[in-house]
Amino acid sequence: MLDEAIAQKLDIEKFSSTPNTFCIADVGCSVGPNTFIAMQNILEAVGRKYESKALASELPEFQVFFNDHAMNDFNTLFTTLPPEKHYFAAGVPGSFHGRLFPKSSLHVVHASYALHWLSKVPEEVQDKDSPAWNKGRIYYTRASDEVANAYAAQFAKDMDNFLNFRATEIVVGGMMLLVMTVIQDGFHRSQSAGGFLYDELGSSLMDMAHEGLINEALIDTFNLPVYTTTMNEMARLVERNGYFNIERMKLTDPILNVEGPADMQMCTMHIRAAVEGVLTKHFGSEIIDELFTRFYQKAAKYPLIESKYKKGNLLFLALKRK
Ligand SMILES: C[S@@+](CC[C@H](N)C(=O)[O-])C[C@H]1O[C@@H](n2cnc3c(N)ncnc32)[C@H](O)[C@@H]1O
User: What top-level branch of life does the organism fall under (predicted)?
Assistant: First the structure.
């Protein structure tokens, strides 16, 4: 999909007057190897595009910017860079919810499995006096509509800012290639795979509170800053923002399938890797092992997420800067 989007939609002719460096950024890159594979795929697709336009002699040099939070393990990232890579690598620390690059300096921006992270928890869900107060839960999928709406509003704000910042940084004709977990339109939010898992995590925390292992008030002041969008919601937000054309939009199946208790062990590892940082910051590290043991035992008992919820919940989106 990524290859096809670049082959058919990237306007390399528009770039020829700019300095002969093709700049790619992977925002929310983590430590690899996925980011290396994605960058290699983009490089090869762009290379083929130059060849197809008989511009092989003008093939630019490639610069890849790896972006993630400053506390990302950039040392691991840089020490495991593929030795045979054909690009110059640089790290860019900071949040993709803010400006990261100089004006009109990028040709392609890639983000995979990252844009579901909100810039912050919506304030109302932690405000005792708000109808959106999310008491006794850490997530919105099985909470009231007020809570869900507060999350959706935060996502809309974050996405608009993200698109504005990237629109400043990407040259006209440049592209953004996004891979995002989504819930299919028409399904209730509680039926998303992520929703099921995070709800079970919240319920494990509540069990610990009932046994006196955690202070319940601490749970009332914690919510996960993560949101699962839908394909239509993303399309609306991109169109409303106005800086990018939607060139490709396609639902596919997720790479991580959850089929039974054996897979739930792997799933627990993934969830732990994703949210351990925010949980530790709020609850301290002492509860983490116990929490994930309980989470695994609880989640593994379920018939698990029905396959219809797992199908088609990965969105590939190719956007072009107008
Ligand atoms: C699930 S990992 C995905 C890593 C990689 N892109 C992949 O597809 O395997 C999500 C990454 O996004 C990063 N991330 C989340 N919010 C971010 C933000 N606001 N700015 C930069 N990186 C962020 C996390 O630190 C994490 O490394």
Answer: Eukaryota
